[in-house]
Amino acid sequence: MSKKHSDKLYKLVKSLSTAEKRYFKVVANKKGDATNKYLILFDAIDAQEKFDDIALMHKVYDSENIKSRKYSELKGYLFEVILKTLQSYDERSSVFNKISNLMNNVDVLFKRGHMQLCKDELKKAKKLALQYEEFTTLYEILKWEKWIAHTMIDVEFLQDELGRIADEEAVYIEQLNLLSQYRNLFLELYIKIKSGGKIEDVQHIVNNELIKKENFNSHRTYVLYYRTKALLAYLQRDEYGFHNYSKGLIEIMESKPHFLKVEVAEYISALHNYCVSCGSKRDYDELYIANEKLKTIVPLNMDDKIKIHRQYMQTFFVACINTGEFERAKGSLKAHFKTIATFRTNIFEDHQFYFHYAYIHFGCGDFDSALYHLNNWLNLPNTIESPNLQMLSRVFNLILHYELGNTILLESLIKSTYRFLKKGNRLQEVEKAFLSFINSVIKVQGKKSQMERYQKFKNHLEIITSCNEARISSFDLMAWVDSKLLNVEFAEIVKNNLNKQRIKVA
User: Fold this and answer.
1) Coil, strand or helix: which one is 475?
2) What pLDDT shows up at residue 382?
3) Residue 78 class from Cβ within 10 Å (0-12 exposed, 13-18 middle, 19+ buried)?
4) Which DSSP string do the residues of 405-419 spell out, in sequence order?
5) By CB distance 3.0 to 4.6 Å, which of 67, 73, 299, 332 could disulfide with 305?
6) What is the pTM for the complete model shown?
């Protein structure tokens, strides 16, 4: 096994849940041999915080004469044993593995001439496949029915059942085709949203006849239809539609509990989007209730466990930020960091989470800690899915250095930020107004003159955008300006603005 494969082995071991590791060690060490080298290697990898191939080699062979080829073969063997053990582990709980095993049984029995036993296995497989809408398997089962009848020269069966089989084949082919079309529409929308696309970029999807349907025989297709409609509403900035379809999607998914047990990742994603839709309506009571559902989900694997924590904390942070509950969010950070340390993954080291960390500390008035997280954020590579956050990070950087009194540094940062935004075609009216304001406010002396600059900036913001939407990306710029003008903490302004909006809606 090459070094590249060594990395794969390390990542595979690290991805296993505690239950999966326990199962592997029980199955792989039935004889209780403490000198088993591939188990020694497994434990050594599990104990490592950072991959070190040389250290692993010495751990396995100790003072023995080490042969790299022998060690490479050991790693390759361990990799294969883990995969086989995981297959066995999944067979105990995975419906799809059970269906696959039944179909494999049919093949084995058919080759040995046990036709009636083949039919028995097909009957079991069909029951499960129908329950979980496995249309590909159902089509395969029909092929076996015809082939077994042909082999047995069962003309009577073919005469009686061929019409029924043809009808079922047509239904399954149609369902597979519909699923494929909706999945493609959904993924195309997903890509557009993640890359900062606009509704005009997907007008062909809006006009697609499939989007106008709402009558399906398939649960899977119904789910994909609602997921697609929810994304369209999100892209169209239709808050009511986004919330309506997101909530409806949850109701549809929860109406078939057996699907939830095998499609955990999809349910996690749907719940997260439902929470986002609640936030877009500023209904945070409904949001918190929906978010707590994530904690009730039983993960199938480590990936599900990570997703649950990721989506739960992301929603919780956003809710706290938008309601001004910065201290509440800050109080959860210690437990959050402790939890993600157990995952041994850098998935939380991304633009979105560093933004949350920085914003939370900013809202608490802890500008040094906010700048620490912001610098981690700025050091991340740019990606196609973070253009707005890239812009926000530069603007937020100016605000933090202004709060910290770094006036001399600000002059050069303003120039570099201007060049960055202009180059990326992100220099819109709000950004231009902010850069002009921050450049002028650092040059004036005295409280009165500064307040005049703040008031002038606020008046300008009110002209170019509505008061409640005076934001640069996800940062509440107007609340920050008001906190300076009124000499009130930023968090209090956010809370007061939310209360005013609630009274207005009521």
Assistant:
1) strand
2) 67
3) buried
4) T-HHHHHHHHHHHHH
5) 299
6) 0.80
